[in-house]
């Protein structure tokens, strides 16, 4: 009496869940780039860090991102729209995550 | 031995297991954000600890699977007794500590189930005392399938993340922005770990209370103080953080980039949440490892170190049987009665102390070499001093006194040198 259907359910649910969240966030980043606000988040520095960038490298990368922001072909209207879309997408990703938490807490049911 | 005393001892041991579970599994949530530099290690483990604490209060579905299902007795009674729970816990703790020392992200849940299964089979002399269909359907199959499912999900998510953010013009793509997302996705993993793993110990303690007739078998849900203690134990363990395993998961399997780390963490969380919603007690560790491998495969510009992956898989293969054998052996000793229980406890304490000592010794690599050199120098100086003194010594008595004093000096120096070693207990960082 092995419940094979349950495994398939888990596979599909997690595939859809993860894909939706990742896509939403990635699209948000894409929209930020379109809006001319490509983010740059350097790795935090600490002892024994695994991803290590020297301050010089960080500066260089930040400069490249700044340059990319300026070389943006879109009109201001499109940029504004893209920015709104980006924030909407990030919020949506957050809501999906909250829904996932809602699902596993029996207290809410 | 008094039954209440045994129950208290076993609860203490169960909480210690919960603690090892916490520090063994910090890596599942926090290895990838630490690896990509999304979070500092201390911040990461503190965050994981808090979320584990919160998660432990959220759901008790898995706890009830353990206390209500796995081990069946005759006529509905529970076949397991407090000494058997103790034996099972010793098996689980031993395997957890040994794998931590090796830096292998092995499943704490399998260690626990293995220990309990071994102890029950030996303790009841009845191979039929385990419900094998529950074992197969709820533990073994999920264990085989969950890493594959998580890997597949992580592979697809990573492809998606890279495809969507890909730029044709070669300008910076803003993928470092995934670092912010990683903070949330790894938090979600920590939370789901709390909803899953803290409950395993809750289930065991509840099982114990039921077997000691302190709780009715009709209500397999954990009591509030059990939930509280388990939540605190796992949070403390998580905060202590198993750096060895973090390193294996964060750097050993594949080089993790922010986009990939986010995809892996989201997949881990999604898989765990989906399965705990359905009441599977699956291993967070195996899911997390599967996700990291899957996300590594999803990137075109990196490779997966299959040697490390194989070593980890080998560890998984041994987890349940070894814990079962240790649990069974402990149960055999426990059959001697009170003396057996005392022997078991002493063995457990010795194992714990030895593992932590080995850990402390490996920690001070650089210091250790310097220490050995100093020891050689000291011995040489002592030998020269004795050689100089010898001609002056006339009576044999005086000579022996001098030797004693010299030996004592040596001992003093040794103990001083030992005190100079950094305090044991912390891991190599």
Automatic annotation (TrEMBL), chain A:
Domain of life: Bacteria
Keywords, ordered alphabetically: Membrane, Transmembrane, Transmembrane helix
Transmembrane spans: 6-27, 81-105
Protein name (record): Peptidase
Automatic annotation (TrEMBL), chain B:
Ranges where the record places region Disordered: 404-429
Localization (cell): Membrane
InterPro entries referenced in this protein's UniProt entry, alphabetically: Phos_transporter
Membrane topology reported for the UniProt record: Multi-pass membrane protein
Keyword terms of this UniProt record: Membrane, Phosphate transport, Transmembrane, Transmembrane helix, Transport
Record field: transmembrane: 45-63, 84-104, 110-127, 139-162, 224-243, 313-333, 339-358
Principal subcellular localisation of the protein: membrane
Record keyword DNA-binding present: no
One Pfam family in the UniProt entry: PHO4
KW Transmembrane (keyword) present: yes
PANTHER family xref list: LOW-AFFINITY INORGANIC PHOSPHATE TRANSPORTER-RELATED, PHOSPHATE TRANSPORTER
Family as reported in the entry's similarity comment: Belongs to the inorganic phosphate transporter (PiT) (TC 2.A.20) family.
Name of the protein: Phosphate transporter
Organism lineage: Bacteria, Bacillati, Actinomycetota, Actinomycetes, Micrococcales
